[in-house]
Design brief:
Elements lengths: L1 E4 L4 E4 L8 E5 L10 H19 L4 E5 L6 H10 L3 H18 L15 H13 L3 E4 L2 E4 L15 H7 L14 E6 L15 E3 L1 H13 L3 E7 L3 H16 L4 E7 L2 E3 L2 E2 L10 H5 L4 H9 L7 E3 L1 H27 L6 H22 L4 H18 L6 H18 L12 H15 L3 H13 L2 E6 L2 E6 L1
Parallel strand pairs: 3-4, 3-9, 9-10, 11-13
Antiparallel strand pairs: 1-2, 5-6, 6-7, 7-8, 11-12, 14-15
Bound molecules: zinc ion.
The site of zinc ion has 4 residues, from helix 7.
């Protein structure tokens, strides 16, 4: 597989350090609010990366943190009149609910800052001992200029960075480029821990270096996150981790592009700020997942109602293909015909196309096209019925490919709820009794719920729209 490595600005062959387990780290959310679609994009994209690596037979250790110590959390605690710990717990729970709807698999480990304090303190002490950090009145800063590779990820030189950081310079810093590793406690209600520098808490960047080291070791295969994290967050992580260990921190860096809303930057002040929760009120989580994977992860993606509706109908086409095959498995009979056997073998080219696309820097857009080419063939090849074997094998391939993308995972795609089953059975009975008025009434009621019944030689088929 090739990935675009931000560190080298090139597509490179992805070769893990240790073949037996790929180690990847993705920056997680600051848990002071519900996640918005901009947050959701890296979670879905890099969950897909992980699913794909696993599909290709790799074992993956995936670490994604929760930033549960932050000014925003402390402010939210004041607003809501609860403790910062309660704020963290509340939004961590909400995070899992939201991403579960998007079929995101939980990470191998989801460490929290509040549970990593001893490792963070030891890390900061190590940086001071190495002469890379210094203390001023209970705060600890990292001396960015002392790390020779500073700027190598964001491809900026020290002078450019210096010019950019001259605004609002903290006078206690020896240099405007220096960044905080440890913050002294200022008010009583701030979260704080004992440290060699007095009561305080970690700065933001240090947690990822400490957690990555704790769970994945000194050098990891892949570090990923949103493009907005490249500088300063990821640049500072490199300075901390490589300054500490003297070894490369991450061999590959992947960054996803921005999200705009109706072609404008998403912001609270513009009123175009959507949480995943808002969207889930109107659309199924899989529709949002489909939308997020429908463009290449590195490009910008524009969120609009139109595009969500297009994603919804594309996903419906996938679901309908699955429903057709399930129906044929129920009603079809017998083994493959000779002709079917050839067709099924021919379907291998769609798997090959899918893999080729995903191998090319996780091109989910082309991978989705390969799935639709498969679906088009399946629809043609099953038009006048098919054997059980053919339906089963076709479904296996469809599930295999959509599974990597995290789509068509919902149970309700497979079976109808009891009430609908009842209605459909009732309609069959009405037709048998030649009570066509009743049969039509039921058909209309189902149509109102987005369900079309199609009478096929194999029985009634259910089509959702
Ligand atoms: Zn991070």
């Amino acid at each position: 597989m090739k990935v675009y490595n931000t560190l080298t600005r090139k597509k490179e062959e992805f070769i893990p350090l240790d073949e037996s387990e790929i180690r990847m780290y993705v920056c997680g959310p600051t848990v002071y609010n519900y996640i918005h679609i901009g947050n959701a994009r890296p979670f879905v994209v890099f969950d897909t990366m992980r699913k794909y690596l696993e599909y290709r037979g790799n074992k993956v250790c995936f670490v994604q943190n929760f930033t549960d110590v932050d000014d925003k959390i402390i402010n939210r605690a004041r607003e809501e009149g609860i403790s910062p710990y309660e704020v963290g717990d509340k939004y961590i729970k909400a995070y899992f609910e939201d991403v579960q709807a998007l079929n995101v698999t939980p990470a191998t480990v989801h460490p929290r800052v509040t549970e990593t304090i001893p490792e963070i303190i030891a890390f900061v002490e190590g940086l001071i001992q190495k002469g890379l950090a210094y203390e001023v009145d209970g705060d600890v800063y990292y001396s960015a200029r002392k790390f020779p590779g500073y700027g190598k990820l964001s491809k900026q030189n020290i002078e450019e960075l210096e010019a950019g950081s001259r605004v609002n310079v903290d006078e206690r810093k020896q240099d405007p480029l220096d960044f905080v590793l440890w913050k002294a406690q200022k008010t009583e209600d701030e979260m704080a821990w004992e440290s060699p520098w007095g009561m305080g808490r970690p700065g933001w960047h240090i947690e990822c270096s400490a957690m990555s080291r704790k769970y994945l070791g000194e050098t990891i295969d892949l570090h990923a996150g949103g493009q907005d994290l490249q500088f300063p967050h990821h640049e500072n992580e490199i300075a901390q981790s490589e300054g500490f260990s003297g070894k490369p921190f991450a061999r590959y860096w992947m960054h996803n592009g921005y999200i705009t809303v109706d072609n404008e930057k998403m912001s609270k002040s513009l009123g175009n700020f959507f949480t995943v929760r808002d969207i889930l009120k109107e659309f199924d989580g899989e529709v949002l997942r489909y939308f997020l994977l429908s463009g290449h992860y590195r490009g910008p993606i524009n969120f609009s109602r139109d595009l969500m509706e297009q994603s919804q109908s594309a996903l419906e086409r996938m679901k309908n293909a699955k429903a057709t095959l399930l129906h044929l498995i129920d009603t079809g009979s017998g083994p493959f015909t000779e002709e079917e056997k050839q067709k099924i073998d021919g379907y291998d080219r769609y798997r090959a196309k899918f893999i080729k696309a995903m191998d090319d820097d996780l091109n989910t857009a082309d991978a989705i096209s390969a799935v639709f080419e498969l679906i088009r063939d399946v629809n043609t090849d099953t038009k006048s019925g098919a054997s059980k074997d053919f339906a089963r094998e076709s479904l296996k391939l469809l599930n295999e490919l959509t599974g990597v993308l995290g789509l068509l995972r919902k149970k309700e795609n497979d079976s109808l709820d009891e009430e609908l089953e009842q209605l459909i059975a009732e309609r069959q009975e009405a037709r048998k009794q030649k009570d066509f008025a009743r049969a039509d009434a039921i058909r209309d009621e189902l149509a109102a719920r987005g369900i079309t019944l199609k009478d096929t030689p194999q029985g009634v088929q259910i089509i959702r729209s």
